[in-house]
Design goal:
alpha+beta; 2 domains; four-stranded antiparallel sheet; 3 helices; 9 strands; rod-shaped
């Protein structure tokens, strides 16, 4: 119902007024054409009156009968054609506006799939798509709003590194940011992250934890 209201408001109000005026004018012209045609088709029958011819004619005063003829406006073909052209132009404009409205509505209803505008990441952070393919500058378009990615940090070969913590677009560390999940094939600690539909920037920070030195980088 709201979309219908937007379509009606997008239609030129002046064109709508002209449309109804032109439509009324054409209807009146058609009425005149039909009336004129009916008048031509009606046969003229002479008025015969019964009477007796008389040989003698008495003089009588001459009576002059005046008859007022009704003036009937004849339809103009040129004005009818012009009105018809205007009507067709308005209808064509309405059709174009309708298809434009449908196209814009369809476009607005499509899920947004623009890539994330920017990524700010700490040193050692590696991004993977959901198939564990590294995301680099060459395939940056893989990162789209709504996508699921893996955020990993290189755990190095230090045996004392036992965990990591990773945060995205947050300024404070909290216990739920700690990751104990490790991918031994990649040599990283990682966390799964789904990009929100409204996010345009990913500010990623990560720290490794050492059994001896604690959180590295503090």
């Amino acid at each position: 119902m709201e979309e219908l209201g937007e379509f009606i408001s997008s239609f030129n109000k002046i064109s709508l007024v002209v449309f109804f005026i032109t439509l009324g004018f054409l209807a009146y012209e058609i009425y005149l054409f039909r009336k004129e045609g009916a008048k031509k088709d009606k046969p003229k029958i002479p008025d015969f009156k019964e009477g007796i011819f008389q040989k003698t004619v008495k003089a009588s005063p001459i009576l002059v009968k005046t008859e007022t003829k009704k003036i009937i406006k004849r339809p103009s073909k040129i004005s009818f054609i012009i009105g018809l052209i205007i009507l067709l132009v308005i209808i064509a404009n309405a059709i174009i506006n309708f298809y434009s409205f449908e196209k814009n509505t369809e476009k607005n209803n499509q899920p947004e799939s623009n890539p994330v505008v920017n990524i700010v990441a700490s040193k050692g952070i590696i991004l993977y798509d959901n198939n564990w393919i590294p995301i680099t500058e060459s395939n940056f378009t893989k990162i789209k709003r709504g996508s699921t990615i893996y955020i990993g940090i290189d755990s190095t070969k230090d045996a004392n590194i036992d965990m990591a913590r990773i945060r995205v677009n947050e300024k404070e560390w909290s216990p739920d940011k700690i990751s104990l999940i490790r991918n031994d094939d990649k040599g990283i600690f990682y966390k799964e992250y789904q990009i929100a539909s409204e996010e345009s920037v990913l500010n990623i920070e990560a720290q490794l934890h050492s059994k001896i030195d604690g959180w590295l980088g503090d």
